[in-house]
């Protein structure tokens, strides 16, 4: 495991070999390599700095356990810290006793938000939770059609009021309909812009205020790398997210965005998107992601 990191740490280890303690001076080179590995995995710079400081504190003074090579021990400390920062275990989607559970999807256009809405609905349906999807992206009529088509494909009803209605009103009525029909979970797809803008945030905030969702999931494209940090900060400050879905992990990104999202918002990644198909959604597991980030 972590062969790539182990290789690059090879010269750094020479300084650790023969030592009985990991100290500040013998660890610097190893920390620099970890820093490089994380930056290559597209973890945000500030997040990397904070992470390295934490690892340094933990590693310093750690007794080298007899029979365990210091390099192995160091990698273990890095790995465990990564897993811890990303939340240790999978945190499932909220499920309230009095239905419907209301999930609000947020994110920029093109991140895979509409696809993730349908993926999530299918995932829940497989768990025998009935779903309804609500199409509030009136600015891009194709988005409503896309959701309707996906709904047919997975046999999940879509609530829509066309592209002339007010998104806040669509969301409100959608939730009312889900309540009336005894639907278990209602997932609201919202408009995404190419860039964050105030109108978009204000509208999202208003939808949130109106429907009082149990989950606000930020959809983050894993390929956006460093930018994932700014995106998370803005959405979390302005709207308040409860979790995230990291999409496009089937691409060649190492998934560093996962660490940034978690570290910045304190909220867990709940799912990962691993393909264009509607089945391509998996629960997020911090240990698997830690392995991927470390390479
Ligand atoms: P939205 O604008 O955020 O609603 O994005 P869409 O759901 O329309 O997705 C944008 C593009 O990304 C589409 O071509 C999707 O098929 C694609 N996409 C979404 N999720 C994934 C994923 O996990 N992996 C890959 N490879 N493509 C994805």
Automatic annotation (TrEMBL):
Subcellular location: Cytoplasm
GO biological process, one term: SRP-dependent cotranslational protein targeting to membrane
Principal location listed in the UniProt entry: cytoplasm
Hydrolase among keywords: yes
A molecular function GO annotation: 7S RNA binding
Keyword terms of this UniProt record: Cytoplasm, GTP-binding, Hydrolase, Nucleotide-binding, Ribonucleoprotein, RNA-binding, Signal recognition particle
EC number: 3.6.5.4
Domain of life of the organism encoding this protein: Bacteria
Binding positions (GTP): 107-114, 189-193, 247-250
Domain SRP54-type proteins GTP-binding: start-end pairs: 268-281
Record remark on domains: Composed of three domains: the N-terminal N domain, which is responsible for interactions with the ribosome, the central G domain, which binds GTP, and the C-terminal M domain, which binds the RNA and the signal sequence of the RNC.
Subunit structure: Part of the signal recognition particle protein translocation system, which is composed of SRP and FtsY.
Similarity comment text for this entry: Belongs to the GTP-binding SRP family. SRP54 subfamily.
Described purpose of this protein according to its UniProt entry: Involved in targeting and insertion of nascent membrane proteins into the cytoplasmic membrane. Binds to the hydrophobic signal sequence of the ribosome-nascent chain (RNC) as it emerges from the ribosomes. The SRP-RNC complex is then targeted to the cytoplasmic membrane where it interacts with the SRP receptor FtsY.
Protein name per its UniProtKB record: Signal recognition particle protein
Gene: ffh
Full-sequence range covered: 1 to 295 of 485
């Amino acid at each position: 495991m972590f062969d790539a990191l182990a290789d690059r740490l090879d010269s750094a280890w020479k300084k650790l070999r023969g030592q009985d303690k990991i100290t500040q001076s013998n660890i610097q080179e190893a920390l620099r390599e970890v820093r490089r590995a994380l930056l290559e995995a597209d973890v945000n710079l500030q997040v990397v700095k904070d992470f390295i400081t934490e690892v340094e504190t933990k590693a310093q003074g750690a007794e080298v356990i007899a029979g365990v090579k210091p390099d192995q021990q160091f990698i273990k400390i890095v790995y465990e810290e990564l897993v811890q920062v990303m939340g240790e275990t999978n945190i499932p989607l909220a499920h309230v006793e009095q239905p419907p559970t209301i999930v609000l999807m947020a994110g920029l256009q093109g991140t895979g938000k509409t696809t993730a809405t349908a993926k999530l609905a299918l995932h829940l349906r497989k768990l025998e939770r009935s779903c309804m999807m609500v199409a509030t992206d009136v600015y891009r009529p194709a988005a409503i059609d896309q959701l309707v088509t996906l709904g047919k494909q997975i046999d999940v009803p879509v609530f829509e009021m066309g592209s002339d209605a007010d998104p806040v009103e669509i969301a409100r009525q959608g939730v009312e309909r889900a309540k009336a029909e005894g639907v278990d979970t209602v997932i609201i797809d919202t408009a995404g812009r190419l860039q964050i803008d105030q109108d978009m945030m204000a509208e999202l905030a208003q939808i949130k205020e109106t429907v009082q969702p149990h989950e606000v999931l930020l959809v983050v494209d894993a390929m956006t790398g460093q930018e994932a940090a700014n995106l998370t900060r803005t959405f979390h400050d302005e709207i308040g997210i409860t979790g995230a879905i990291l999409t496009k992990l089937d691409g060649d990104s190492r998934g560093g965005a996962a660490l940034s999202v978690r570290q910045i918002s304190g909220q867990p990644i709940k799912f990962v998107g691993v393909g264009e198909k509607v089945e391509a959604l998996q629960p997020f597991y911090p240990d698997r992601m830690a392995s991927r980030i470390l390479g």
